Amino acid sequence: MMREETVFGPIHSRRLGRSLGINLLPTRGKICNFDCIYCECGWNCDGKGDTVLPTAAKVRNDLENKLIELMLDGTVIDSITFSGDGEPTLNPEFPRIIQDTVFLRDAYCPNAKVSVLSNATRVHIPEVFEALRKVDNPILKIDAPTDDLVAKINQPAPGYRLERVIEALEKFEGDFILQTMFLKSRNFDSASPEVLDGWMDIVRRLKPRKIMVYTIDRPTPEQGLEAFTVEKMQALVQPLLDEGFTIDIKGKG
After folding, report:
1. Angle between helix 193-206 and helix 162-170 axes, rounded to 10 deg
2. Of 225, 224, 245, 220, nearest to 234 (Cα)?
């Protein structure tokens, strides 16, 4: 499902409420350094029809126009959310765009949060880290606890190292949201001890202020994936709940 606009919505997000989306990637293509088996945008190889990235000036203009329209309509939004067709931090003007967005949010809808959905692969880059520190909700992904398991579910670009990601996330000192997909495929199962135990150890190491656990809710590029129920996910993360972690669990629908 490709976004055909740079600024889109608002839409209802099961995690963020009424959300105005920003896509920092091509409007008719996909650019990502992950190729997740569950990505609603499809495989990377199928999204090469457009490689034009929106500039900071375009994003600011489109966002300001949309916020004025919503304000005049009396439409309230809960979040301005960077998601879109791939990894938003790959846009080279990401830091400038975040600065502009925070300014516009303060001017037009100060009660809305600024949220970024990211696979966390570029958090170790100082400019990206500093930009993410400026937003209300840096929502950063770890789906699996080892490089081998990440390869099965996320299929990252060459050079990915989970330990580098974890070390970069430690610099948030817990002030971020950890996002994790739970599912089962032919060679990956979030409920297996090799995945679950290692992931919980990472959670304990990073101590995020909140954890978002969710499952597949839309068509996926890999066939045969199994979604988890809310009840199953709650049972799996119960040890962390017992330890006092705040966990938001979203099932299908």
Report:
1. 30
2. 245
Pairing relation of β-strands 226-227 and 7-13? unpaired
The mean pLDDT value for 1-8 works out to: 72
pLDDT tens track for 59-110: 999 999 999 999 999 999 999 999 878 899 999 999 999 999 999 999 999 9
Domains in the chain, ordered, with CATH? 7-250 (3.20.20.70)
The residues with which 79 forms a beta bridge, in sequence order, are 19, 113
Residue 245 contacts residue 203 (beta carbons within 8 Å):
yes
Q: Spell out where the chain has E strands.
A: 7-13, 17-23, 79-83, 113-118, 137-141, 177-181, 183-184, 210-214, 226-227, 247-250
For 234, the enclosing helix (H) or strand (E) is helix 230-242
